[in-house]
Amino acid sequence: MCGIVGVFEPKGFASSSDIEARVRRAADAAAYRGPDASGYFALPKEGIAFGHRRLSILDLEVRSNQPMSSADGDILLTYNGEIYNFRELRSALEGEGAVFRTKSDTEVLIEGYRAWGLTELLKRSVGMFAFALFDKKERLLYLARDRAGQKPLFYSRLSSGGIVFGSEIRSILILKPEARALDPAGLDAYLSLKMTPSPRTLFKGVQKLPPGHF
After folding, report:
1. Which residue among the candidates 1, 2, 109, 175 is catalytic per the annotation?
2. What is the pLDDT of residues 128-150, one digit of tens each?
3. Which of 25, 57, 173, 198 lies deepest, with the highest CB count within 10 Å?
4. How high is the mean pLDDT of the chain?
5. 171, 40 contact by CB (below 8 A)
6. Which residues pair with 140 in a beta bridge?
7. Helix, strand, coil % in the chain, rounded to nearest 5
8. Where do the structural domains in the chain lie, given as residue ranges?
9. Do 49 and 43 contact (CB within 8 A), yes or no?
10. 88-96: long-range contacts at Cβ-Cβ below 8 A with a sequence spacing of 24 or more?
11. pTM score of the predicted model
12. In what order do the strands lie in the sheet with 68-69?
């Protein structure tokens, strides 16, 4: 497993160093999810910052560390999971002219989005995953989760119109401490069902992306 975290502020960031430090702390709070490598970046003008903690499974080289961008820098991805049919998807993409720099399934998601768009990419992808993909040209952030919900993905909306997200609620609370307030309905569900159905969590300010949604 890996850990992902990020912030999107549509109006941009005042300082890249400040937001990167915050995202670093949030990602490191889930360091146990990815002890092999860590990566962080922030684009102040675009208002996007990603963090990643990596557990290396496929393509163990540094070239596959995350967050990862497309060769032209237009698509940015932070991803947790495994695409079981990534070799099949890679072959199809190469047949359409895609050129790969790594042997990872991460890059297959990036090139698949470029070639097919998000909806078609998700239809074709078989696996367990949670990812955040930022399209720099369109200034769009997508969050997506696998059909069975094997990989977690939480988010919280900001009063500015932005959003914070992560694999762990503890990471969300570092980026948005005020989200810590208890959700009585979430607690009632947990005490009754031993779980909190999506999109609720135990925290009023934190939601859970349902399985099979983006």
Report:
1. 2
2. 999 999 999 999 999 999 999 99
3. 173
4. 89
5. no
6. 135
7. 30, 30, 40
8. 3-180
9. yes
10. 89/124, 89/125
11. 0.91
12. 68-69, 75-83, 127-135, 140-145
**Spatial contact of 79 and 106, defined as CB atoms under 8 Å apart:** yes
Amino acid in the structure at residue 33: R
Please state, as a whole number, how many other Cβ atoms lie within 10 Å of the Cβ of residue 41: 18
Q: Is 10 helix (H, G, I), strand (E, B) or coil?
A: coil
The CATH class given to the 3-180 domain equals alpha beta
Which helix (H) or strand (E) element contains residue 174? helix 169-175
Active site residue 49: no
**Do 100 and 111 contact (CB within 8 A), yes or no?**
yes
Whose tokens are 């540094």? That residue is 62
User: Is 160 exposed, middle or buried (CB count within 10 Å of its CB: 0-12, 13-18, 19+)?
Assistant: exposed
Place of tokens 């768009």: 117
Place of tokens 């069902």: 193
| Span 47-56, pLDDT tens digits | 999 998 765 5
Nearest to 128 by CA among 180, 166, 85, 90: 85
Cα-Cα-Cα-Cα dihedral of 96, 128, 8, 161, to 10°? 110
Q: Which two tokens stand for residue 147?
A: 């059909």
